[in-house]
Amino acid sequence: ELEQLAEQLSQSYSGATMDDVDLDMLARQLGDEAAVDARTLAELERALMNQGFLDRGADGQWRLSPKAMRQLGQAALRDVAQQLS
Q1: Is the pTM of this model over 0.90?
Q2: d(CA 19, CA 39)
Q3: Which range marks the domain in which residue 62 is found?
Q4: DSSP letter string over the chain?
Q5: How far apart are CA 61 and CA 12, in angstroms?
Q6: CA 11 → CA 8, 61, 72, distances in Å?
Q7: What is the spatial distance between Cα 17 and Cα 2, in angstroms, rounded to a whole number?
Q8: What is the mean pLDDT of residues 17-30?
Q9: Total number of domains in the chain
C-alpha cells in the first residue's frame, strides 16, 4: 500500500492529477492532516486549471499558462512601480 501511495504522490505518469491520490490510503499511512492537505492541493489544482492558469505541456507536466505568466508579470511590475514611487 505504501509503494502504491508513493507512486500516486510522485505524479510521474502523464496526465496525473492530485485527484488520482487515494485520500483514504493517505490518511491511513500519513494521518488525517496529510489527507486534508492533499484535498486542498487538489482543489487548488482544479481551480487554477478551470481559471486557465495551468496548462499541460507536451510531456504531461503542469505549466503556468500564458495568462498566468501575464498576470505574474503585471503584478511584478506593479510591485516595482510602487517601490520606486
Answers
A1: no
A2: 8
A3: 2-84
A4: -HHHHHHHHHT-STT--GGGS-HHHHHHHH-HHHHHHHHHHHHHHHHHHHTT-EEE-TTS-EEE-HHHHHHHHHHHHHHHHHHH-
A5: 9
A6: 6, 9, 25
A7: 18
A8: 91
A9: 1
Q: Return the exposure string of 41-78: e unless at least 16 CB atoms fall within 10 Å of the residue's CB, then b.
A: ebeeeeeeeeeebbeeeeeeebeebeebeeeeeeeeee
C-beta separation of 53 from 63 below 8 A = no
Residue 1 CB coordination number (10 Å) = 9
Distances (CA, A) of 79 to 68, 72, 75, 76, 84: 17, 11, 6, 5, 9
Dihedral through CA 71, CA 77, CA 80, CA 85, nearest 10?
-120
Confidence band of 80 (pLDDT split at 50, 70, 90) = very high
